[in-house]
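From the pipeline queue, job 12 of 40. The input is one protein chain; the requested action is below.

Action: predict structure.
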Amino acid sequence: MSSEPHNTRVKNALHPNIFIIDLEYLVPLEQVEPLIEAHRAFLDKYYANKRFLASGAKVPRSGGVILAVAASRAEVEQLITEDPFHAKQIARYHITEFQPRMTAEGLS
């Protein structure tokens, strides 16, 4: 029996694209901290509607990363406008789109 991780091939037509949203803070952390609660409420909203898969702070804490699923880049760009960090110009967003060809078991 193999001890290697099990991977599952996925069909692109059945799965939305995944987006890496890379946030880069534009201000010192002291200016970020007051908006963390509102930012987390934004994250909660999109976890609830299954658009976000994972998120967290970078190490070192220069920003954060969100893994999202969406039908298009335009959809991701639109939802980002709801983030308080965006509204207050606290962070710059870099979006990378990719089409999964394989996933770990349980993600397909």
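Job complete. The CA atoms of residues 24 and 39 lie 14 Å apart.
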